[in-house]
Give the backbone structure.
Amino acid sequence: MLQLLLALAFSAVPLTLYVPPIRSLNLFVETMEGLIRQTSLMALRAYPRIRLACSRILASFHIRTALFDSVSRGDDAL
């Protein structure tokens, strides 16, 4: 049992080299917070425009399919 415990302990030691120091981690977190803050402002401004564009595209498809259906059935009016 002691051999298993020592094997696990010594195999986990190299994994600590992949964990960055806390001071680097704080800088990374601060940078990510700034990036999210900036992109959220852009997304809030762009969202209504994207939504309007998508609704116009979908409305044009709906009008075209409604027109096509009425022509194929022989209706005079929509």
Observations:
- The chain has two helices and no strands.
- The mean pLDDT is 79.
- Residues 13 and 21 are 15 Å apart (CA to CA).
- Residues 22-73 form the longest helix (52 residues).
